[in-house]
Design brief:
Largest sheet: 4 strands, antiparallel
Oligomer: single chain
Strand content: 35-45%
Order of helices and strands: HEEEEEEH
Shape: elongated
Bound molecules: zinc ion
Structural class: alpha+beta
Number of domains: 1
Length: 104
Amino acid sequence: MTSNYPPGVSGNEYAIAGPDYEEGSDELCPFVRRWEEDGEPVELECGEPTVEQGYAGDRWLVCTAEESHTTDLPRQDDSDEDRMIDAAMEVADAKRERLETADW
Ligand SMILES: [Zn+2]
């Protein structure tokens, strides 16, 4: 059956370190349970509460009822973070420049 690792993660690093973050989610588990009843295939969405976990920029939902129910989420757009880092670097550069050119 499915492994307990989230999608895209198969190594030991995750197992040792765990997710980067974990937070409650309003999403209900979209995992589709499939089984057979009287020889007929049955499909039903799990619908249990989930928590959102993140690791190395990937995000996914983990079912609170069944650990193997993981659902991929779109990767976090980190361009905002990049912009903030760029801005912080510029401020730091400007400060250094002021120090270097200061007339002691
Ligand atoms: Zn589930």
